[in-house]
Amino acid sequence: MFTLDGVQKFHDWTHSSLSRMLDHIATLPEGSYHTKLNGFGFATIGEQVLHIFQCETNWIHRAQAIPFDGLSISEYPAIRDARVLQGKVRSETSAYLSGLTEQQLNEEITLRSYDGFEMTCTPAHVIHHVLTHAFHHKGQIVSMCRMLGHPAPDTDVL
Predict the structure, then answer these.
(1) Which pairs with CB-CB distance under 8 Å and at least 24 residues apart come from 24-29?
(2) pLDDT per residue as tens digits for the range 97-109
(3) What is the pTM of this model?
(4) CATH number at residue 112
């Protein structure tokens, strides 16, 4: 059984780590945010960053049965825009968690996607998925920074 306190701490820790990653990205040379690199599902750092925050928003909206139309890199073209988006996404997820009881966090719900796909899981599993997914893509961004000649410092340890 997951606890609200534990899930909220995991969420905060994840976003603190993402903020440190964004701090490093902000120091990269001009144009690095949009440099295409082969071997990644999302070819630029900017697309990776957007994907992290878009996925969190998408899953949290699904958990609440709220429609979500997606985001575009043209809406968030620079690192400063990504920071604004992160704040919005982090706040939305925190508000969602604040509205749950511990029992609701661990009760199964049915999630529906725009294409009709349905799955059953708990809100705790949704949050766990979103946050581990963020670390997966944060790792890819760190690799991309190395490829661009600007290795990132440790962005995981508080």
Answers:
(1) 24/145, 24/150, 24/152, 24/153, 24/155, 25/49, 25/79, 25/82, 25/141, 25/145, 26/79, 27/150, 28/145, 28/148, 28/150, 29/148, 29/150
(2) 999 999 999 999 9
(3) 0.95
(4) 1.20.120.450
